[in-house]
Amino acid sequence: MTGRLAENVLHFVRLLRACGLPVGPAKLLDALAAVQAVGVDNRADFRGALAAVLVSRHEHLAIFEQAFDLFWRNPGLLEKIVASLLPQVHGRTGEGDAAPAVPARLAQALLPPRPDRGDEDADEVELDAAFTFSPREVLQRKDFATMTADELAQVKRMLATLRLPLPELAVRRTEPAGEGARVDLRATLRRLAHPAGALAPLARRRHRRRPPPLVVLCDISGSMDRYARMLLHFLHAITNDRHRVHVLLFGTRLTPVTRHLRHRDVDVALSRVAAAVSDWAGGTRIGACLAEFNRRWSRRLLGQNAVLLLISDGLDADAGAGLAFEMERLAKSCRRLVWLNPLLRYEGFEAKPAGIRAMLPYVDEFRPAHNLDALEGLTAALRGRAGPRRATPPAAASGAGSRVAPARSGPTPAAAMPATMPAARVLR
Amino acid sequence: MSTLPVPATVDATVDFLAAQDYVADRRLATAVFLALTLGRPLFLEGEAGVGKTEVAKVLAAALRRKLVRLQCYEGLDVASAVYEWNYPRQMVEIRLAEAAGGIERDRLAHDIFTTRFLLKRPILEALAPHDGVAPVLLIDELDRADEPFEAYLLEVLAEYQVTIPELGAIRAEVPPVVVITSNRTREIHDAIKRRCLYHWVDYPDARRELDIVCRKCPGAPASLAREVVAFTQRLRAMDLFKAPGVAETLDWAEALVALDRTALDPQAVADTIGVLLKYQDDIGAIAPDVAARLVDEAREQGVRL
């Protein structure tokens, strides 16, 4: 291979890396070998060879195609374009692994927080309060730094204590255990063959247990705005607490943010989330978002007995159109569907909005989520294995003299909770 | 039966696959060619029924090698995927040694953990085949296995070897051709993908699908095949929960042939739609009037194919 071509491949790999594709030095060597094997006579094959080596996720394919077209049409253009291109590509891919340069992050961390894109904010800030749940998509980026000191303190306390202990399920894999139900022949034989093993006790195994995957769908529309920031801290904590947690945010569209939340530092993680979400505090189209989830994500995320946590106030701009249908499918695809609703804090809360009425029949568990106590109640409720549900959320239980009604008395929510839902009144 | 050499160019790979009635697009042929030439595992991802598993079968047939298939499932462990000790034989061996008297236990421990007592499961069989010919190893639906098994595969895919604590590492003299498939019911870890050549298997375009139907279902009249393909392509453009794959197209063509249909009509579609669509909501979306419209469009488009 000529040095010139190898050099261009190198530049191309670098470009892809800058675009957020995970291509390390080993991939470069593979790419060179692949190009050598295929040759450069046929442009399509050349493209195919590079794709086979450099792409490892379906969603990266589109980026690869664009980069390929741009780069191999005229590699000379690259030097001129790349500087202006990179910020755009970052914005579009929004991948967590498209790590911004460290100095930039450092600068962000050291400078006092300021609005990310001042001009956009200035334009749209006025929409914030007025359109608390409107179909209008407010393309607005939220700065988390505006959190009040009170909120921060609350969140810190919450992070110190909160874990989400899902009941563990038995899986097919086994582990050694003295009292296990199955005999471990391999270990037993090894004992028997051991010099001192003329009489060896049976070695045993039992089925391993592990918590099921957790998928969180969190509403970030305008009407949820007051809770969303706190909830995001909560989501960050549970995402980093264990494996197999996936988080998607929705307002008028669905945004997967698991990768962003995976960052250990909560501030970095949340600022990445803020950058990735375009419909912050805008309208709510729950039905459409659930439909998108069902179609594009449920089969990928809800395998292996996943528990689904739906965080939403149920106020739907589409007035529940198509919602029941999608909720039914969602409920059938996951092992357990838990709905956290901050509106449950209000006395005499009734499920009048069409959205809430459409969703309720398909929910396994319906809980408040407006403050720390409510979230702690959630963890306590989940710890109890599937069956027994806490009749009284701790928020209500601790408040002296408050009237408490059981949040749920039976396993079938539809039966336990008629449309007006008198039983769901929970007092603070 | 001797194995055949791997194709030398991408063009040859296309022909090579076509000779086995597998109509691959250029991208897939390139990925297959590279996997064979560079000796890398081929990772195929895509919707169900687009012919991922078929690639491995076709490769085995075309190269005249044995196909070793490992179907993944949750909890798949080393004992069922790689190797297992033959416990009954080991016990008999210990008993015999005891009966003979004067057993040296050190010696015994060494003796019963030798290859004589080893049962090969698919992966070990692929790395150390009993006939010495490197087979095609198909690791099917890896997304169904759990993460610990994925981690175990890393050694297999990177080094073509497995390590058995009692025996040491067993390394393939000639690496097998490895094909991994995934339906993406969960994301496979990047560490696995990094060691493989990746290809997203998409639904074929109308022309290629027609070619596939003609090859795989020779009993179908050409006009019917065209209409079937055009109809399925229309369905894929619709907003369905699960679009029909190529496998469904082939099944449908065969079903229509079995029902002695020579052309599509709304009634035939209504009778056989269960072959194409497997979700009640999707079937409900194909109401009689929709079916009639689709059939008309399919007839129109079919002629142009």
What report would you give on this structure?
The complex is a heterodimer of chains A (428) and B (305). In chain A, helix 4 packs antiparallel against helix 5 and helix 9 packs parallel to helix 11. Chain A folds into 3 domains: 97 residues; 40 residues, no CATH class; 211 residues, von Willebrand factor, type A domain (Rossmann fold). Helix content of chain A is 47%, strand content 11%. Chain A is flat. A 6-stranded mixed sheet of chain A has the order 6-5-4-7-8-9, with helices on both faces. A 3-stranded antiparallel sheet of chain A has the order 1-3-2. The longest helix of chain A is centred in the first third of the chain and has 19 residues. Chain A has 19 helices and 9 strands. Chain A has 428 residues and is an alpha/beta fold. Chain B has 305 residues and is α/β, with parallel strands linked by helices. Chain B has 3 domains: 139 residues, P-loop containing nucleotide triphosphate hydrolases (Rossmann fold), CATH 3.40.50; 38 residues, no CATH class; 95 residues. Chain B is 52% helix and 13% strand. A 5-stranded parallel sheet of chain B has the order 2-5-8-1-9. A two-stranded antiparallel sheet of chain B has the order 3-4. In chain B, a hairpin with a 3-residue loop joins strand 6 and strand 7.
Topology (elements, then pairings):
The complex is a heterodimer of chains A (428) and B (305).
Chain A: H1 3-18, H2 25-38, H3 43-54, H4 61-73, H5 75-93, H6 102-110, H7 118-124, H8 127-130, H9 149-161, E1 169-176, E2 182-183, H10 185-193, E3 204-210, E4 214-219, H11 225-241, E5 245-250, E6 254-256, H12 258-261, H13 266-276, H14 286-301, E7 307-311, H15 323-333, E8 336-341, H16 354-359, E9 365-368, H17 372-383, H18 394-398, H19 413-416
Chain B: H1 10-18, H2 26-38, E1 42-46, H3 52-63, E2 67-71, H4 78-81, E3 83-85, H5 87-100, H6 105-112, E4 118-120, H7 122-127, E5 136-140, H8 147-159, E6 161-164, E7 168-171, E8 177-182, H9 190-194, E9 197-201, H10 206-216, H11 222-237, H12 246-258, H13 266-276, H14 280-285, H15 288-304
Parallel strand pairs in B: 1-8, 1-9, 2-5, 5-8
Antiparallel strand pairs in B: 3-4, 6-7
Helix pairs in contact in B: 1-2, 10-11, 10-12, 11-15, 12-13, 13-15
